[in-house]
Amino acid sequence: MPESGPNLVIVKLRVNGENHFVTIPPSKTLLATLRENLFLTGAKPGCFNGDCGACTIIIDQVAMKSCLMLAVEAQGKEIITIEGLKDSPLQQAFIEEFAFQCGYCTPGFIMNGHALLLNEHNPSREKIKEWLESNICRCTSYEEIEAAVLKAIVHKKE
Amino acid sequence: MAFEYIFASTIEQATKKYAEVEGQNRYPAYYAGGTEIITLRRIDQLNVDVSIDVKQIAACNIHQVDKEYFVIGSCITLTDIEELNYFPLLTDVCKEIADRTARNKITIGGNICGNIFYREAVLPFLLTDSVLVLASENGIRTEYIHDVFEEQLLLENGELLVQAFIDKKYLSKEYIAIKVRQQWETGYPLITIAGLKFDGQIRVAISGLCPFPFRSLELENLINNKTLRREERIAEVINHLPSPILNDVEGSDEYRLFVLSDLLEKVLDRLEGI
User: Which of A100, B57, B132, B175 is the most exposed place for a label (fewest CB within 10 A)?
Assistant: First the structure.
């Protein structure tokens, strides 16, 4: 990893299919880097502690909490943020099922749900519940969110 | 000095770098999942200024069952443990730690060596008399877990947990694993208990009762003492617990003992008479 200064490193990140070079302190989280260096503000800061899931993104097809990852760890990996999803079935299902109120947690839920759909062909309700427990919605739209995920699964099967 | 992040691809590189930066009066830590390092540094509860990334070390990524042993590297994530499910007891304990997305990042080595005292993932390793492979600048040593785990893993300075070996004979034994929380289905435990039946005897290990996980042969002798009635055995266990019993926001000491009695009933229900 080339050093650009005593406290900074240059990191190459591949986000939503595009390459970026950022100059950051190595202690900077991926969440902060996405938001402050790449201006991708879809991943939301919430607890900064891995509890709320608002910052969830997908790395190499796996859901990750970007507050629990340093940007230097993400080099060479395929990162997808909510900005990288365009009219996905799950986004459409969230709209149709009114699966949000304030919307702050929505990107995290959608990214986690999208990862579930990428990895599981026909997830059981138990599996869906297990995955969605990683995210918190303070408006308590849980029923609608589960309905949206179920709808996207049906859509995927069709 | 400013925080530094270093990638190591061999055990030798990692342990040498650890010794080198420590010699510069800095505070290194081996880094795999990194979840605890990130979150505790953020609130100034962990003084680490050099992270040595060990995720690329092949020996730390082994995850297989060979002729005699189940071998697991310290960098295997809790999700990988659940998905490959070589050892169902380990799977059942690990899948209750944190939440699914966090488990994609948390490693088995990180949970066992972490500062957060629950260290629930160690329970199956305690129950199966596992062997740990530890590496330092001075070389590699293998130790029975009971010789190097006393409330926490007693690593020497600069030592890295590389792998654990569990004898295959334990993988298919009857077991039980229960995690009781104050509420909800995600979060820290009130108590986690794991039990395993081996050679006709019940083995038990517990996290969340005391500020450290433990397995006690003295308690196991009491649990297996069939000259006493079941409720007498449970009462004896309660009277011989290590101290202190946790009394915190998750639950009072009195409530924890009440919950433990119930859990011991469940362990006996499940494993006695098999």
Answer: A100
Instruction: Give the 3-state secondary structure of residue B7.
Output: strand
| CA separation, residue B65 to residues A105, B68, B88, B132, B171 (Å) | 40, 8, 13, 16, 10
Q: Measure the CA–CA gap between A17 and B23, rounded to whole angstroms.
A: 42
Q: Are strands B69-73 and B160-167 parallel, antiparallel or unpaired?
A: antiparallel
pTM of the model as a whole = 0.95
Task: Tell whether B141 lies on the interface with A, counting CB pairs under 8 A.
Answer: no
A78-80/A9-15 β-pairing = parallel
Mean per-residue pLDDT, B187-205: 95
Using a CB–CB cutoff of 8 Å, tell me whether A10 touches chain B. Answer: no
Give the helix, strand, coil percentages of chain B, each rounded to 5.
35, 30, 35
A54-82 residue pLDDT tens: 999 999 999 999 999 999 999 999 999 99
CA–CA gap between residue A59 and residue A15 (Å, rounded): 9
- How is residue A67 annotated by DSSP? G
CB-side neighbour CA atoms (13 Å) of B45: 9
Task: Give yes or no for a contact between B172 and B89, defined as CB atoms under 8 angstroms apart.
Answer: no
Rounded to a whole number of angstroms, the distance from the CA of A95 to the nearest CA of chain B is 24
Contact A27, A21 (CB under 8 A): no
Asked if omega into B244 is within 30° of 0 (cis), the reply is yes
Phi/psi for A138 (5° steps) reads: -70, -20
Place of tokens 């900077």: A28
Return d(Cα B95, Cα B93) in angstroms, integer. Answer: 6
For B:17-56, CB contacts with A below 8 A are 34-35, 38-39, 41-42, 51, 53
State the virtual CA torsion across B57, B118, B35, B187 in degrees, nearest 10.
Answer: 130
Q: What is the pLDDT of residue A6?
A: 61
What count of other Cβ atoms lies within 10 Å of the Cβ of residue A87?
A: 7
* Residue B270 CB burial class (10 angstroms; 0-12, 13-18, ≥19): middle
CA distances from B82 to A151, B91, B94 (A): 27, 5, 7
Rg (CA), chain A: 16
